[in-house]
C-alpha cells in the first residue's frame, strides 16, 4: 500500500498544508504528478492512494487512463465520510 500524501510529506520534509502556504499549489501539483508517474511506471504490484486533487491535472488523468493496471474509484456519501 502506498499513500501518495505520506510519500510527498516525507519527500518535502513538512506537512502538505505548510508546503502549500510556502510554495503554492502549482509547486505541490508538480511534485504530485512526478510521484504519480514514478509509481505508475513501477513494475511492482501496489495499491496507490492518491490525494483527491490528483485528477485535477489533465496529465495525471491521462497517466491513469493509460495505466495498464486497474484503477478503482471509491466514492461515499458525506454522511459515511463524516462517520
UniProtKB/TrEMBL annotation:
Sorted alphabetically, which PROSITE patterns does this protein's record hold?
SHIKIMATE_KINASE
Q: Which GO terms describe its molecular function?
A: ATP binding; shikimate kinase activity
Return any one Pfam family short name.
SKI
GO CC annotations on file: cytosol
Q: Does the keyword Kinase apply?
A: yes
Q: Name one GO biological process term.
A: amino acid biosynthetic process
The answer, when asked if ATP-binding is one of the entry's keywords, is yes
Q: Which PANTHER family match?
A: SHIKIMATE KINASE (PTHR21087), SHIKIMATE KINASE 1, CHLOROPLASTIC (PTHR21087:SF16)
Name of the protein in question: Shikimate kinase
Q: Which organism is it from?
A: Psychrobacter sanguinis
Amino acid at each position: 500500500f502506498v499513500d501518495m500524501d505520506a510519500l510527498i510529506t516525507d519527500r518535502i520534509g513538512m506537512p502538505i498544508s505548510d508546503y502549500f502556504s510556502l510554495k503554492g499549489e502549482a509547486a505541490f501539483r508538480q511534485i504530485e504528478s512526478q510521484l504519480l508517474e514514478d509509481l505508475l511506471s513501477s513494475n511492482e504490484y501496489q495499491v496507490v492512494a492518491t490525494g483527491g486533487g490528483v485528477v485535477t491535472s489533465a496529465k495525471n488523468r491521462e497517466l491513469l487512463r493509460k495505466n495498464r493496471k486497474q484503477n478503482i474509484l471509491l466514492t461515499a456519501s458525506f454522511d459515511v465520510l463524516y462517520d
